[in-house]
Design a protein that fits this description.
The chain has seven helices and eleven strands. It is an alpha/beta fold. The longest helix is centred in the middle third of the chain and has 14 residues.
Length: 260
């Protein structure tokens, strides 16, 4: 079943083109990785799906309905978070924000079911023991797990993440990808990333964006796609990382794997 249908999507900011002519269908339970150069429209695509930016032309349907009118819960982990880490908030208080609804009043009181859901997701992402810790005391990986927990608080059917491993160490990155693989058993995941290890090792399908959709298919892509995506030939080295991205690259030694 196609849970996300995008047809002839174009988005402009004033006279600046962000996306043009994007056509994309995502099936239920998919794990899609989106890669491309900076300014290639990856984040704009996520925001259009969420209804945070309006298409200039084209349409987006989520379970057959337009963004903002789907009735389907979407979880979102943004790339840039405006949370001031010095602000006196605990992990639990931040994740509770995921339970807020538009019609709530200024003096809203969380219900028992809200707090129970937060307890569940904190355990799910592995930071329940940190629930009373202040933001300023969190590592980069712990902070990202908290943001994922906040997105999960609404019990989403689809989870969209924009660069969730951009500022974390290797161990935290590994843990986040393991978490996303587990979450993919019960929800559709769309992941924007520059982390090319994630592309080769985790996602099921790949979308390559450079103002338009250059490629959509399996995680193996050829050098022609890479050249079209980045505008020049690219060789990236992933030492010790098994690769399955460049379809026409021969098997090489484990400690000198050529991968994108």
């Amino acid at each position: 079943m196609s849970v996300l249908h995008i047809k002839d999507l174009s988005v402009y900011y004033a006279n600046t083109r962000a996306l043009v002519g994007v056509n994309l269908d995502i099936e239920e339970g998919e794990y899609l990785g989106i890669i491309g150069p900076n300014g290639g429209g990856k984040s704009t695509l996520l925001k259009a799906i969420l209804g945070l930016v309006s298409p200039t032309t084209g349409e987006i349907k989520i379970y057959g309905k337009s963004p903002g009118h789907t009735g389907t819960r979407l979880g979102y982990v943004p790339q840039l978070v405006s949370l001031d880490k010095s602000f006196p908030l605990t992990v639990e208080q931040v994740v509770l924000q995921g339970r807020l609804r538009p019609q709530l009043t200024l003096f809203h009181r969380y219900r028992a079911e809200d707090r129970e859901r937060v307890k569940e997701v904190l355990k799910q992402v592995g930071i329940y023991k940190l629930r009373e810790r202040m933001l300023s005391e969190l590592s980069g990986g712990e902070f990202q797990k908290m943001l994922i927990a906040r997105a999960l608080a609404v019990n989403p059917k689809m989870l969209l993440l924009d660069e969730p491993t951009a500022s974390v160490d290797a161990e935290a990155r590994k843990q986040i990808y393991q978490l996303l693989q587990e979450l993919n058993k019960t929800m559709t995941i769309i992941l924007v990333t520059h982390d090319l290890m994630a592309v080769s090792s985790h996602v099921r399908t790949l979308a390559c964006m450079n103002g338009r959709l250059v490629y959509h298919g399996g995680p193996q892509i050829n050098e022609g796609v890479i050249g079209e995506l980045y505008g020049c030939p690219i060789d990236l080295i992933a030492h010790g990382v098994p690769h399955r991205v460049l379809a026409n690259v021969a098997e090489v030694k484990q400690d000198d794997a050529r991968s994108i």
